[in-house]
Amino acid sequence: MTPNRLVVLFLALLAVGPLVLPPFYVTLLNYIGLYALVAIGLVLLTGVGGLTSFGQAAFVGLGAYTTAILTTQGELLPAWLAWLGASPWLTLIAGMLITLAVAWLLGAITLKLSGHFLPLGTIAWGLSLYFAFGSVPGLGGHSGIPDIPAINLVGVTLARGDQIYYLIWAFLLVGIWTTRNLLDSREGRAIRALKGGRVMAESMGVDTARARMVIFLIAALQACASGWLYAHMQRFVNPNPFGLHMGIEYLFMTVIGGAGHVWGAVVGAGVFTVLKQWLQDWMPRLLGQTGNFEIIVFGFGMVYLLHRARGGIWPLLAKYVPVRKPARTVDTTAEPLPRREQPTRGEVVLQAVDVTRAFGGLIANRAVNLEVRAGEILALIGPNGAGKSTLFNQISGVDVPTSGQVRFRGHDVTGQDARQVARLGLSRTFQHVRLLNRMSVLENVAIGAHLRGQRGVLPAAWRLDRAEEARLLAEAARQVERVGLGRHLMEEAGSLALGQQRILEIARALASDPCVLLLDEPAAGLRYQEKKELAALLSQLRAEGLAILLVEHDMDFVMGLVDRVVVMDFGEKIAEGLPAEIQRNPAVLEAYLGGTDE
């Protein structure tokens, strides 16, 4: 069975649901759809982006209360605002705009936090909004707002559960489709790089702060839509469904289904809702008294799930579903991406001028000078702790010099961040391989081409970016072939050997069409034949006019390849020259061997 046929079967079952099921089960399906819509946002925010939020219920409340107030209290509102209450569809737009503004403000404050401070921040504003719903005059207090009108769609009033059912699931299916489209795009790769790959992503030109804000806003808007639907389904709102406990339950649903899987949101919402209802019915009968016993069971159940199936239920189900995944293809005939103007051979493209970096009283780099020319390979060598990686980070924008200058093609780029430096034409690899292991080789390399695309979030969500996406993937495939990994194109990057992963990082860096390539120990972990192939690749890139600066410990590899060598020790440059000169230099022998031959 193909995925498309499975989706058609699922849609057919959804369509006949209200026709054959009792009203109670239709209502249960309505709640599953509403909860899943919120959980999809959490899949994007938490499962994919790595940002834990306990406050999504508050955004559900914003959508519900906006439509409740506008549609029931129009006579109390000023004329310029009251007209929005004429139709629930207008209140949906109003709710989205209000949620967008509130979420942007909260995101601007909260997303600057990291570690455990971020979820604590979401708890704080989630509680604040919850108590605001019950305390602010005009919001109905804890008794709530009744008599919310039903939604009217093309002349049909959706007053019953079986009528609004189709609208709820239509919203959910659109949410699933747009979220999956977004993740399968240039913007989606940037979002997937947030979890464990922010430094790498910034070095490839990804604005990670913007990507974090984007998924925060999308999750908030999806929650708002769920709240709007909830208000018009219930025809009544009060603060209870929008408290912190519901924020926790939404996270439970996401984790149960599979936090990294869009369809897992539906599975998680379904399992959680059905089990909760079942436990609420049976636990009092079993124990002979009432109480929130289902929460106790869920608590132990979550601990067990985290031990036995941390990835959630959806990956387990996927193993047993007879689905044949279609092979992904790359359009090799796609129009090539435009290339930047390259410097002329011999032109000085990169300079470090008296670069000094101090960490308190420790001087990691002291007045270091070097320059790299187009069409040459310059090696930066030195013992462990010599300050090579620190200098590398300052050149690439990951770190900022305490004093001195970094100049790129004659322009001072000191203090510019990694993203800005990458945009100018500098790309790098890392000492410790930084790949997205669950993404394919092709997609990892496509991240390197991020700056060469322009289409944003909305075109990606509605698949209006396909022409550009084809060009980006074709460019990525060309770079994979260029470095000799073509047969691994669709394999997961984490399945490659370490040496192949280092080569893959070079392909990703080349996908940005750089003028200067910074390689941090590219030969580490490579076998003899792989080193020969790497040397041949770097020689080819040099012949094409690319400037290469590499840090390396393998002296045999370096001395037989590079044009010039800069040697560092204790944060200072102690020698510079041709490979043969460096091998005879007394200061270099002293640094490496602790003494010279007398």
- Reading off the top of the CATH hierarchy, the class of the largest domain is best stated as Mainly Alpha
Domain tally = 3
Percent in helix = 40-55%
CATH domain fold name of the largest domain: ABC transporter involved in vitamin B12 uptake, BtuC
- CA radius of gyration is 29 Å
Give the biggest sheet.
Answer: 6 strands, mixed
Provide the structure class: alpha/beta
Count of discrete alpha- or pi-helical segments spanning 4 or more residues: 24
Q: Name the average pLDDT.
A: 92
Unreliable stretches, pLDDT < 50, 5 or more residues?
Answer: none
Outline the structure in words.
The mean pLDDT is 92. By secondary structure, the protein is α/β, with parallel strands linked by helices. It contains 24 helices and twelve strands. The chain has three domains: 3-320, ABC transporter involved in vitamin B12 uptake, BtuC (Orthogonal Bundle); 344-425 and 514-598, P-loop containing nucleotide triphosphate hydrolases (Rossmann fold, 3-Layer(aba) Sandwich); 440-513, no CATH class. Helix 2 crosses helix 12 (262-287), helix 3 (56-72) runs antiparallel to helix 5 and helix 17 runs parallel beside helix 20 (498-510). A six-stranded mixed β-sheet has the order 8-9-10-5-11-12, with helices on both faces. The longest helix is centred in the middle third of the chain and has 27 residues, at 208-234. The chain has helices at residues 3-20, 23-48, 56-72, 79-82, 88-110, 117-135, 161-183, 186-192, 198-203, 208-234, 244-257, 262-287, 293-308, 313-320, 388-396, 418-424, 441-448, 457-461, 466-482, 498-510, 528-543, 555-559, 579-584, 586-593, and strands at 151-153, 156-158, 348-359, 362-373, 377-381, 403-408, 411-412, 426-428, 516-520, 547-551, 564-569, 572-577.
